Amino acid sequence: MKRDHVFEFFRRLAEANPSPETELEYGNTYQLLVAVTLSAQSTDVGVNKATRALFAKVKTPAQMVELGEEGLKEHIKTIGLFNSKAKNVIALSQILVDRHGGEVPADRDALVELPGVGRKTANVVMNCAFGAETFAVDTHIFRVGNRTGLAKGKTPLAVEIQLERKVPQPFRVGAHHWLILHGRYICKARTPECWRCPVVDLCAYKPKVLDKAAKSPAKVGAKKAAA
């Protein structure tokens, strides 16, 4: 995708949603870290349902440690991999208490040293909590980057590097959110809803699904071939 097209791509997404935010619910930076850690291989909707009661009780790492692993499991047992996630959340909370004064560090290297926190989770926290220009490549951003031609790569890190290089100001802080929301609600995995996509003319994906009634891109291509 050409540089002027990249700018226009994000300009349109920004025009449609000027103030994008994560759909995870949280009240402070620590709760954000916990929510993002719990969201691995789970939906934001499912995490939010589990954390509403939890976050009403637990607002600090010390309170989480006091709740304990078994107590945490009772709150998050509806989330996938809840056993290992509970273990990690308690462990990272203890480290925050012991090494960081109960505060979440505004440093990606320090964040990825926490149990259960990988590069993607750290990038989300850095972006949402501290306004860093980071690009957390999840399955949606990976798909959108490759499908549209915006940022092609065989791995999430490769796509992240491309985004780091290509995304212009003033869109760098919000880019992560715009791409996730675009992938979640329009550029869907099974059938991208190209008929209502604001950047359809900038996208390299072929064949495009321009018929709302179509079940797959192949069906649209077949219709065009038969015409």
From TrEMBL:
<dbReference type="Pfam" id="PF00633">
    <property type="entry name" value="HHH"/>
</dbReference>
<feature type="binding site">
    <location>
        <position position="187"/>
    </location>
    <ligand>
        <name>[4Fe-4S] cluster</name>
    </ligand>
</feature>
<dbReference type="InterPro" id="IPR003651">
    <property type="entry name" value="Endonuclease3_FeS-loop_motif"/>
</dbReference>
<dbReference type="InterPro" id="IPR003265">
    <property type="entry name" value="HhH-GPD_domain"/>
</dbReference>
<keyword id="KW-0378">Hydrolase</keyword>
<dbReference type="Pfam" id="PF00730">
    <property type="entry name" value="HhH-GPD"/>
</dbReference>
<keyword id="KW-0255">Endonuclease</keyword>
<keyword id="KW-0408">Iron</keyword>
<keyword id="KW-0326">Glycosidase</keyword>
<dbReference type="InterPro" id="IPR000445">
    <property type="entry name" value="HhH_motif"/>
</dbReference>
<keyword id="KW-0479">Metal-binding</keyword>
<keyword id="KW-0234">DNA repair</keyword>
<dbReference type="GO" id="GO:0003677">
    <property type="term" value="F:DNA binding"/>
</dbReference>
<keyword id="KW-0411">Iron-sulfur</keyword>
<keyword id="KW-0456">Lyase</keyword>
<feature type="binding site">
    <location>
        <position position="194"/>
    </location>
    <ligand>
        <name>[4Fe-4S] cluster</name>
    </ligand>
</feature>
<dbReference type="InterPro" id="IPR023170">
    <property type="entry name" value="HhH_base_excis_C"/>
</dbReference>
<comment type="similarity">
    <text>Belongs to the Nth/MutY family.</text>
</comment>
<keyword id="KW-0227">DNA damage</keyword>
<keyword id="KW-0004">4Fe-4S</keyword>
<feature type="domain" description="HhH-GPD">
    <location>
        <begin position="38"/>
        <end position="185"/>
    </location>
</feature>
<comment type="function">
    <text>DNA repair enzyme that has both DNA N-glycosylase activity and AP-lyase activity. The DNA N-glycosylase activity releases various damaged pyrimidines from DNA by cleaving the N-glycosidic bond, leaving an AP (apurinic/apyrimidinic) site. The AP-lyase activity cleaves the phosphodiester bond 3' to the AP site by a beta-elimination, leaving a 3'-terminal unsaturated sugar and a product with a terminal 5'-phosphate.</text>
</comment>
<dbReference type="InterPro" id="IPR005759">
    <property type="entry name" value="Nth"/>
</dbReference>
<dbReference type="GO" id="GO:0046872">
    <property type="term" value="F:metal ion binding"/>
</dbReference>
<dbReference type="InterPro" id="IPR011257">
    <property type="entry name" value="DNA_glycosylase"/>
</dbReference>
<keyword id="KW-0540">Nuclease</keyword>
<protein>
    <recommendedName>
        <fullName>Endonuclease III</fullName>
        <ecNumber>4.2.99.18</ecNumber>
    </recommendedName>
</protein>
<dbReference type="GO" id="GO:0006285">
    <property type="term" value="P:base-excision repair, AP site formation"/>
</dbReference>
<dbReference type="GO" id="GO:0140078">
    <property type="term" value="F:class I DNA-(apurinic or apyrimidinic site) endonuclease activity"/>
</dbReference>
<feature type="binding site">
    <location>
        <position position="197"/>
    </location>
    <ligand>
        <name>[4Fe-4S] cluster</name>
    </ligand>
</feature>
<dbReference type="GO" id="GO:0019104">
    <property type="term" value="F:DNA N-glycosylase activity"/>
</dbReference>
<dbReference type="GO" id="GO:0051539">
    <property type="term" value="F:4 iron, 4 sulfur cluster binding"/>
</dbReference>
<dbReference type="InterPro" id="IPR004036">
    <property type="entry name" value="Endonuclease-III-like_CS2"/>
</dbReference>
<keyword id="KW-0238">DNA-binding</keyword>
<feature type="binding site">
    <location>
        <position position="203"/>
    </location>
    <ligand>
        <name>[4Fe-4S] cluster</name>
    </ligand>
</feature>
<dbReference type="Pfam" id="PF10576">
    <property type="entry name" value="EndIII_4Fe-2S"/>
</dbReference>
